Amino acid sequence: MLPQAVNRSSRKPHVLTVAGSDSGGGAGIQADIKACGALGVYCSTAITALTAQNTMGVQGIHVTPEDIFARQLEAVLSDMEVDVVKTGMLPTPQIVNILCSHLESYSVKGLVVDPVFVATSGDQLTSHEVVDVIRKKLLPLADIVTPNLPEAALLSGKVHLRTCIDMHEAAKIIKDFGPRYVLVKGGHLDHVSAENVDVLYDGETFWDFHGTWVETMNTHGTGCTLASCIAAEMAKGNPVPVAVQAAKDYIQRALEHSKNMKIAKGLHGPLDHFFSFPEYSKISRCKGFQTNSLRLYAVIDLGMKRRWQCSAAEALRCAIEGGATIVHLRDKETGAVDFLKKAESCVEVSRKSRIPLLINDRLDIAMVCEADGVHLEQSGLPVKQARRLLGSDKIIGVSCKSIEQAQKAYEDGADYVVCGPVYPTTTEENSITVGLDGLYAICRATSLPVVAIGGINASNVEEILTEKPTTLHGIAVVSELFDKPDICKAMQELAGMIYGFFHDEVEKPLVHHCCM
Ligand SMILES: Cc1ncc(COP(=O)(O)OP(=O)(O)O)c(N)n1
Ligand SMILES: Cc1ncsc1CCOP(=O)(O)O
């Protein structure tokens, strides 16, 4: 049981957005709240201006009186634990000055500056003097500034930005004003190819972020949304380049989902921030990894005594046939050459069935056999380094016994955690059980998907899943595979029991087919 840690760790990542209100709901404060909400992050606000705005343009602007603007900042920053501040429309130099003095008095983990000067409709949103104050006062405090091409031209004084090389030049000039990173967005480049490139620069390295060009008029609010997503991902503890990649992925999907949406008469419709919300929440940080794959997690331990005689690949095939939704291959005894051979034959089987295959601890083997990812034990490679080597397309899971370990796994970039032993088990000797309370405490403290492990079998699945927290995504078994003479049948029994507890369409197992 880990009760004392629950309150401290169940706090939500928090973004304070300092921006203007868009009555049309597509940009500004409204976009920021929706984007943060969609990414599971709390969003507070300090409103800089009220705009009367719709899909046809901006019809009016009322700047917030300075004292009430300052009071909003004071109210939020003095009371709430803000992780990251994100700025949008800052209409006057006075508003920027008030913000900067508050940022100097209250420490926050990050500052994302979206330098909003002109709306896509062509309407001016800030006074001309604002550019200079942002350059001199706000940018030195910023972790990242996210200009599009017209904004980069204004900030850098480099009027003609037409190529990627121009974007690099502008990024260098803007970097000299003091932000840690500059992201120059290429959405306004002439589109000769189907690609869209944004350039991130930290003073030494340029990263090019490629996206696919989406043919749509529903782009109102993309700048605000991208900056908010970056802030939200930073608030979760992600480093800036990882946050940018996650934000780009969100925008790409939002643009694709919103391209046929019609909600007004005007030319520039907004994004649908909550596009397919239930489906989106099933997608993990790792591109393409559906977290409902974690429902029935089969660990094939090649070092264990077993009641069947067949190859690793055959055992894996049987587990999948019985309904396993993800498989995890571990072998603590075999040398690299033999393990690799077995892993390669398993990858072949898992690919055919489109079931993800993870390799336990051996990042080298996982990379060489092109498995879907790696599962790391606490004694294994640190997650951060593994992520650096594997990139963002591969799955990384981590074994955790405590809230602290689960939080670290999250901060370091893991995609899911396996928690246990929930019940006593002979598979993991000398391992203290966390119990059902410990498992649930971890589930409530993390936003990562959790898989329960340890002593789980058909007789206790119901107990685990009946009142499960929402982050508990599935169960993992080892000896249920090894102590039973028929792997396929053992999996089928478990699979049959778990479907009712999850309201999604995990495919039912195929007709029983004994493979022993
Ligand atoms: C109140 C308010 N803030 C910012 C903008 C600009 O939003 P952006 O995300 O750059 O999208 P466009 O409006 O340029 O499409 C705004 N319009 N209103
Ligand atoms: C790998 C692992 N981590 C915690 S318990 C455990 C083993 C669980 O095995 P079993 O399903 O046989 O109890």
Plain-language structure description:
It is a single chain. The longest helix has 19 residues, at 240-258. The protein is an alpha/beta fold. It folds into two domains: 15-280, 3-Layer(aba) Sandwich (UDP-N-acetylmuramoyl-L-alanine:D-glutamate ligase), CATH 3.40.1190.20; 291-501, Alpha-Beta Barrel (TIM Barrel). It is 38% helix and 20% strand. Residues 1-9, 278-283 and 505-516 have low confidence and may be disordered. The two termini are 40 Å apart. The strands form two sheets. A nine-stranded mixed β-sheet has the order 3-2-1-4-5-6-7-8-9, with helices on both faces. An eight-stranded parallel barrel has the order 10-11-12-13-14-15-16-17, surrounded by six helices. Helix 3 (66-79) runs parallel beside helix 4 (93-105), helix 6 packs across helix 7 and helix 11 (312-322) runs parallel beside helix 19. The chain has helices spanning 6-9, 28-38, 66-79, 93-105, 129-138, 149-156, 164-175, 222-235, 240-258, 277-280, 312-322, 336-353, 363-368, 383-390, 403-412, 435-445, 461-466, 479-482, 487-498, and strands at residues 14-22, 42-54, 57-63, 84-89, 110-116, 144-145, 181-185, 195-201, 206-212, 296-301, 326-330, 357-360, 373-376, 395-400, 416-419, 450-452, 472-477. The protein is built from 19 helices and 17 strands. The structure holds the ligand Cc1ncc(COP(=O)(O)OP(=O)(O)O)c(N)n1 and 4-methyl-5-hydroxyethylthiazole phosphate. The ligand Cc1ncc(COP(=O)(O)OP(=O)(O)O)c(N)n1 binds at residues 19-20, 22, 27-28, 51, 53, 88-89, 116, 119-120, 125, 219-224, 268. One of its GO terms (cellular component) is chloroplast. Residues 296-480 form the Thiamine phosphate synthase/TenI domain. It holds the Pfam family TMP-TENI. InterPro entries: Aldolase_TIM, HMP/HMP-P_kinase_dom, PM/HMP-P_kinase-1, Ribokinase-like, ThiamineP_synth_sf, ThiamineP_synth_TenI, TMP_synthase.
